[in-house]
Write a structure and sequence with these properties.
Layout lengths: L14 H13 L3 E4 L2 E4 L4 H20 L2 E4 L3 E3 L4 E3 L3 E5 H6 L11 E5 L5 H14 L4 E6 L4 E9 L2 E4 L5 E2 L3 E4 L5 E4 L4
Length: 188
């Protein structure tokens, strides 16, 4: 067995950038990096149902605000994190012209739906990181606990407000400015 020829490989100046480039262009559509760990993202039909219900219910107000929704890449520069949220709402002009990832602070709302395999990550790691990187609102749809929690007030340690804590499925969750919307959580 021969060893690799080191002269064939280029020195990478920025390993974070190289890893994120590889994830974006090589690993596939549904892969993210969570605290340095490459993780394949998969959703169940029940997850998709909750995401679709949210899209339907915020859709009219989202269009009034000139926004689009999707699950495009969100980069967290300076960290070993590169997320594919279950749903993110961004200004339409950014969605139309951005080929690469956006930053959490460019969103109006980020939504994650828990599953047994990722619930703890969504509840702790992503909640902290989205807050640190300025996503104004983070909606956690916790399918195991059958609750929704809206986080706001992003800052260096994460979010400062959880809007009264977890609300049971079926409750109407108030989305603050610029939404001014009651989100019916029945059927999640």
């Amino acid at each position: 067995m021969t060893s690799p020829n080191p002269s064939r490989y280029r020195h990478v100046e920025d390993p974070e950038l190289a890893l994120k480039y590889a994830i974006e262009r090589i690993a596939g559509d549904r892969v993210e990096i969570i605290e340095g760990v490459i993780t394949r993202v998969s959703r169940t039909w029940a997850d998709e149902n909750a995401i679709d219900l949210i899209r339907e219910r915020i859709g009219p107000r989202m269009r009034e605000l000139g926004c689009r929704s999707g699950s495009g890449n969100l980069d967290l520069p300076g960290s070993e994190n590169y997320y594919l949220p279950d749903l993110a709402v961004v200004p339409a002009e950014l969605a139309a012209k951005t080929e690469g990832p956006l930053l959490p602070d460019q969103t109006l709302l980020v939504v994650e739906v828990t599953s047994p395999s990722n619930g703890d990550t969504d509840r702790t790691v992503k909640r902290r990181r989205y807050g640190q990187y300025g996503a104004p609102l983070y909606l956690l749809v916790d399918r195991q606990e059958r609750t929704t929690t809206l986080f706001s007030g992003p800052g260096p340690l994460g979010y400062t407000d959880d809007h009264g804590g977890p609300q049971p499925f079926g409750a109407t969750l108030r989305l603050p400015e610029p939404w001014h919307l009651g989100l019916d959580t029945a059927g999640f």
